[in-house]
Design goal:
Mean pLDDT: 83
Number of strands: 7
Shape: globular
CATH superfamily: Gcn5-related N-acetyltransferase (GNAT)
Strand content: 15-25%
Structural class: alpha+beta
Number of helices: 7
Low-confidence stretches: 179-208, 210-216
């Protein structure tokens, strides 16, 4: 772990940060190419406007969110969450930079994501992790996640060699990154225009884990 000055800030991504989201995704895929169900080539050939669209969709509302961990001007981790009706938070794509691991960044990212989810009434967090990723399994167990052996989430994870884990969300917890999660009110920079899409609930594909739902965590 490198020395970093100042407090760690957990915040929601901004609409203007599509390029940053792309860079972070590429870093995570280069660091752990087998963990996310997407290749570096696939991510690098995705159009920049699509990354801005992802950021725009994730900076507002209660359907999805990217949370970033930031030290000063440097972003050292991120995690994605989706709202599955009625009250389940699905956690995806957790990643912490190698030199920021084992410093509490991963725990704070999850706390921040659950703070966002608590605002729309989430009662549980569900995630998937590859069975061979013992470091991640141990990390989640220390945070109170328990493995699920029955139900649709467990069955879906089995198809990809992933273990399904769950923990209840404490409704009284004070962890909340909402104060640093405001979406930029202006459009995206560089003249990129995103068409406004109607808000909708999670699709069936979002409600089930795919191969990319498995995540790697080292903290």
């Amino acid at each position: 772990m490198s020395d970093r000055q100042g407090a760690l800030v957990i915040r929601r991504i901004r609409a203007s940060e599509g390029r940053l989201l792309r860079e972070l995704r590429l870093r995570s895929l280069q660091d752990a190419p087998e963990a996310f169900g997407q290749t570096v080539v696939e991510a690098s050939t995705t159009r920049l406007i699509d990354w801005y669209r992802k950021a725009w969709q994730s900076c507002r509302g209660d359907q999805r969110a990217w949370m970033l961990a930031q030290h000063g001007d440097e972003v050292v981790g991120l995690v994605s969450g989706r709202h599955r009706l009625p009250t389940t938070l699905l956690l995806f794509s957790m990643w912490v930079a190698p030199d920021a691991r084992r410093s509490g960044v991963g725990r704070q990212l999850i706390d921040g994501l659950e703070g966002w989810a608590r605002r729309w009434g989430a009662t549980e967090t569900v995630l998937w992790v590859l069975r061979g990723n013992l470091a991640a399994l141990g990390f989640y167990e220390r945070l109170g996640f328990e493995a699920l052996s029955h139900g649709r989430d467990a069955q879906a994870g089995e198809r990809f060699g992933a273990l399904t884990m769950r923990r209840a969300i404490d409704p009284t917890s004070s962890s909340d990154a909402s104060g640093a999660c405001l979406c930029a009110k202006t459009g995206t920079p560089g003249g990129l225009a995103l068409s406004r899409q109607p808000s909708a609930g999670p699709s069936s594909t979002e409600s089930q884990p795919a191969s990319r739902a498995t995540c790697r965590t080292a903290v």
